[in-house]
Write a sequence for this structure.
């Protein structure tokens, strides 16, 4: 099991972040916040998909004016809403007044100390946490911090990104001083970059220096096709080290994919209990004699609709790896010449033609789920040794 870094806990609505709370998954709406109906629909869609927290942009007054109605409409789901504030501190004050559950501030965009203190005091009064996001793209060098930058750049001389990392740490220290002076500690921190290696370096260094919960992410990751790798590599690396309390995979796509992929990352690292079936499929080769690609996609879609328990389902294309995977799965199939042999808990239950494979494997998975729910069997329990026919 991964030994997670100990952090102080903050409360975002009904979702705890840090401490012994599970790693949470966040996403952000892609619509205009002032379009209330569309915004509410997207928030609900993301929450239904598994998002623990949803962030909305509030660049204009009409966006913060819409927040009260949005919060009222999503109140029943319990999903906390975060106001993403840039440049205009007044938007933060309006969002706080509307009742949002968290504020996100960027030190590079709101650095007037008087404005920041007003936001802090308003959040402190209402017990609203604040995320400080020192993203690479918006931090700036300050002349009065040159000595500190020089010191840190020397410390990070072994890092490819030493000077930039020094700027990020300096800006974070400068901003945190304002919060500490106001005796405000309900803080989460993010230090995102488009560069996965800088992201790793930044979060590792911040985790050594501060005990605040960390929000992990790679900014501007791109479309899902490439953004998945750009995001999962650094986030998986950090999470495996126990670093990170909440995550967002930022795609230039429908944000529903951010939630799905973020959850899957936590599932495979055993940082969250899986909800729904786990599908294992072989990569295929010249030995397959069924339409495995289509079969796997059809099985995946059907499992998402009907199966709620973390049942491990394996779909294998031939007898080379099929028997072993069948033994390791709750429900499994390995295919032969336009046929499929289906196993449940390592015991063969059917040998059917290709046209019947999908219906039969779903039938067996449904039956297995019912048996588990009734306490008649357990997940991962094997009855017999599997042998190929």
């Amino acid at each position: 099991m991964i030994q997670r870094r100990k952090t102080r806990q903050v409360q975002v609505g009904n979702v705890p972040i840090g401490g012994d709370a599970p790693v949470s998954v966040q996403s952000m709406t892609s619509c205009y916040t002032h379009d209330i109906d569309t915004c509410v629909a997207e928030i609900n869609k993301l929450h239904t998909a598994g998002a623990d927290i949803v962030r909305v942009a509030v660049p204009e007054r009409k966006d913060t004016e819409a927040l009260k109605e949005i919060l009222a409409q999503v109140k029943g789901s319990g999903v906390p809403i975060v106001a993403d504030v840039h440049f205009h501190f007044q938007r933060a004050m309006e969002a706080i007044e509307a009742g949002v559950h968290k504020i996100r501030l960027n030190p590079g965009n709101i650095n007037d100390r008087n404005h920041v203190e007003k936001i802090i005091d308003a959040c402190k009064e209402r017990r609203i946490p604040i995320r400080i996001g020192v993203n690479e793209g918006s931090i700036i060098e300050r002349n009065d911090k040159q000595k500190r930058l020089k010191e840190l750049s020397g410390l990070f001389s072994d890092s490819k990104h030493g000077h930039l990392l020094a700027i990020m740490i300096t800006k974070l220290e400068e901003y945190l001083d304002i919060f500490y002076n106001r005796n405000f500690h309900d803080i989460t921190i993010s230090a995102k970059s488009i560069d996965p290696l800088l992201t790793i370096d930044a979060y590792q260094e911040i985790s050594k220096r501060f005990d605040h919960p960390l929000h992990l992410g790679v900014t501007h990751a791109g479309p899902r096709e490439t953004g998945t790798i750009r995001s999962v590599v650094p986030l998986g690396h950090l999470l495996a080290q126990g670093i990170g309390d909440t995550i967002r995979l930022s795609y230039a796509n429908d944000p529903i994919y951010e939630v799905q992929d973020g959850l899957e990352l936590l599932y495979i690292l055993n940082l969250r209990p899986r909800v729904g079936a786990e599908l294992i499929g072989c990569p295929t080769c010249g030995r397959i004699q069924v339409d495995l690609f289509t079969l796997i996609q059809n099985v995946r879609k059907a499992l998402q609709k009907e199966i709620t328990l973390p049942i491990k389902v394996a779909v294998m294309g031939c007898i080379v790896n099929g028997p072993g995977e069948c033994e390791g799965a709750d429900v499994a199939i390995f295919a032969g010449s336009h046929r499929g042999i289906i196993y449940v808990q390592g015991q063969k239950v059917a040998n059917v033609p290709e046209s019947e494979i999908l219906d039969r494997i779903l039938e067996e998975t449904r039956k297995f789920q019912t048996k588990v729910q009734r306490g008649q069997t357990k997940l991962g329990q094997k009855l017999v040794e599997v042998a190929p026919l």
